[in-house]
Design a protein that fits this description.
The structure is a homodimer of 205-residue chains. The first copy, chain A, has 205 residues and is mainly alpha-helical. In chain A, 53% of the residues lie in helices and 6% in strands. In chain A, strands 2-1-3-4 form a four-stranded mixed β-sheet, with no helix packed on it. At the A-B interface, strand 4, helix 3, helix 4 and helix 5 of A face strand 4, helix 3, helix 4 and helix 5 of B.
Chain lengths: 205, 205
């Protein structure tokens, strides 16, 4: 599988962590990309007209996006489903946890775009505040219900792990651990997984 | 199932169209909500800390979000899967089409928030342009490959239908049919489905 890739994207990281956990990482050919909300990357757009990453091209030539779809595709390609539970109750729990992590990331990304991509005179503090309230709401929910992060590995746990890793990467000035000690304890263990260690985000050199 | 609802939200419409198609619409209890990117609706946030809609509460008391998860849950509750194909190739095609429609909507919504929620002095034309380029890219891809919209009804078709309906609702000043005649012909038929007719968006009275 070919994957439009960037080492800084938390959604790409979801795919790579999933691939590592499934033993598929070596089969992924990384294609360079530079997704940006204003400067369109036409290399990506040829596959995904939204010009967002991750986007993948299967060996059969089909295009897949976004991260949820690519992760489920990878999972389905390994005998015995692993990360997307088939049993109903576990499935909705894992998928809603994934949606919570994706939503935390969407809000964090929108805040970051506001502060880094937009001219200073066009920035709006209320927008950043509104998005960061979503981030804080998600963190508070995870801290309150940290038991939802126990049990077998699912796409839900992977997404939360990548979301917290993104906060450490881009929002280090806004530490989250002190107010969320149980979540911090969970993440301290989760971040040690080889799949997470192999995918630590870094700015492109 | 209880559903945080607004008649203007295209993501809520996805859930309602899905429910109508599955014969489940009468079993949905609509809860009032007023999601907004800056003014947090604490009624929604009690269920979904991202304070976005749709969010659902199942008869067992579990919270589900976002629209993708709720739609798949509804589909799984009707014997014989309908809208989320089980066969692999059809599944990835339907889910990627859903991601394209959701991505078109995400971009359209971000444009609309820029123009309506944000003070005029803080608006940035490049941002709107960047998002609308995603919308136009998605429309062009659908026009070029309108054959992806043929075949049995899936969540992919429902999402594209709701996305086009949203453009008609909120971007009527920016007509899309003339440049996309094959897509317009497909939508003219699709929009006649009773599920679409029962869920035409309207501003809250």
């Amino acid at each position: 599988m070919k994957l439009f890739y960037a080492p800084t994207s938390p959604y790409v990281r979801k795919v790579m962590v999933t691939a590592h956990e499934l033993g598929l990482a070596d089969g992924i050919e990384k294609l360079p990309s530079a997704a940006h909300p204003v400067k369109r990357d036409e290399r990506i757009a040829l596959a995904n007209p939204l010009a967002k990453i991750p986007a993948a091209i299967t060996p059969e030539g089909d295009t897949l996006f976004d991260s949820r779809v690519i992760c489920e595709y990878l999972d389905a390609n390994v005998p015995g489903r692993h990360l997307f539970p088939a049993e109903q109750k576990a499935r909705w729990r894992a998928l809603t946890l994934q949606a919570l992590g994706d939503g935390l990331l969407d809000a964090a990304l929108l805040s970051r775009y506001e502060m880094t991509a937009r001219p200073e005179a066009r920035q709006w503090a209320d927008w950043v505040q509104g998005q960061m309230t979503k981030v804080d709401g998600a963190l508070a929910r995870l801290e309150e219900h940290v038991e939802t992060l126990s049990g077998p590995l699912t796409i839900g746990l992977i997404t939360i792990g990548c979301a917290l890793g993104y906060l450490d990467f881009r929002f280090a000035h806004r530490p989250w651990r002190e107010d969320h000690p149980r979540l911090a304890a969970w993440y301290a263990v989760f971040a040690e997984r080889p799949s997470m260690q192999a995918t630590i985000p870094r700015d492109a050199s």
